[in-house]
Amino acid sequence: MSTPRSAAILPLGRILAGALALLLERRTAVLHAMTLPWVIHAVLEVWLAVAAQSAQAALPALLLLRAAVYVLLAVMIHRLILIGPSAVPAFGIAPFGLRELRYLGWSAAQFLAAAFVLLLASPLVAISQPIGLAVGLIAAAWVVGRMALALPEIALERVVDLTSIWNLGRGAGFGLGMIVIGLPFATLVFLPLAMSGNLILRLISMTGSMLFVVFALAALALAWRHLDWLRRPGADPAAPASVNLGPDAARGLLEVDVSGTFGARDFGHVASGDGLLPYHGRLKGLVITLNGAAWEGSERAWDALDTLLAHLGFVRVHHEHLQRVALVAPGDWQSLAERLGKHFAHAEFRTFAHDEVQSARAWCANET
To answer: How many domains does the chain have?
Structure first.
C-alpha cells in the first residue's frame, strides 16, 4: 500500500448513500448474513423471558457465542459489499476460522486503544467533566475510526499492519469515527424497547439495532475502498465510471474493459460479473482490456492493475472456475505475466497486444 501524499477527504454523504443503495440492492444476501446472529440473539431473549435464572447462569457462554456470530456477520457484510452476494453463504452459516480470529483480535485492539485515549483525557475530566468527556470521546472515535480501516482488509484476507492502515486513514479520521462510532451509537434510540418487559418489543429493538450495525459495516467497507483507491498512484476518484463488464454467455467469457484509471465511482460495479455464472455454469475465460496511456507497463501500472484485480469480486469468489485469462494492454506486460498470473491460480494466463483483441477472445473461449 502506498504512503499517502496528502490528507484525504472522505465524502461521507456519498459513502452512506452508496452503502444504503448496495444493501437494498443485495437485500437477500443481507438477510442471509443476518439470519444466524438474529436467531441466536432471539433464542437468548426468549430464554431470558421464560427461564431467566438458568439463562443468567449460562450468560457468559451465550455472550461469547453471540460475539462470535457477530464477528461472522461483520466479515460477511464487508465481503458482501466488496466482493458481492456470492460471498455470503446460505443463512450466514460459515466456519469461524483464522480470518475471524484476526478480525476479533483487531477489534479488541481498537477497544484497548480507545480505552487508552480516554485514560489520557482523564485529567481534562477532572478539570471540567463535560469538556473532558467530549474531548476524550471525540479523540477515541478518531483513533478507532482510523484503526477500523484494517477490518475490511482482514475480511478480504489481506495482511495488514498498523502503519499502512494509519496512513490510509490520514485526514479521514473524523468521518471514519462517525461511521464506526456514530452510526452504532444511534442504536440508543431502541434502548426504551430493549428495556421493556415485552418480548416482542425487545426483538424489534434487537432487529433495528442489528440493521444499524449492518449499515455501519457496509459504510466502513465503502470508505475503505474509497481511500484505498484514492491512495493508489494515478487514481482519480472524481473520474467518471471507467469499467465496463461485457458477459458473453454463449462463449463462456466475461470481458472487463477499463478506460483510463479505475476510479472510486465504480463502487460495487465490478461485482456484477458474478451474474454470468448462473447462466453458463462455468466461465471459460476472462478478457481484461486496458485502454489509455495510464496503463503502460510500469510499476505504477502494475500497482493499479493489482488493485483492480483485487477488487473484482467474482475473481476472488469464483477464480477456480476460470480456465484462461487474457490481458489486452499497451506496453510490455510480458515481464509481469507471472505476477499477474498469481491472481488466477487455476487458469492459464497470456498477454495480448491491443490489435489482438479478437485473438484474445478466441483463445479464452478455447476456439484456437
So the answer is: 2
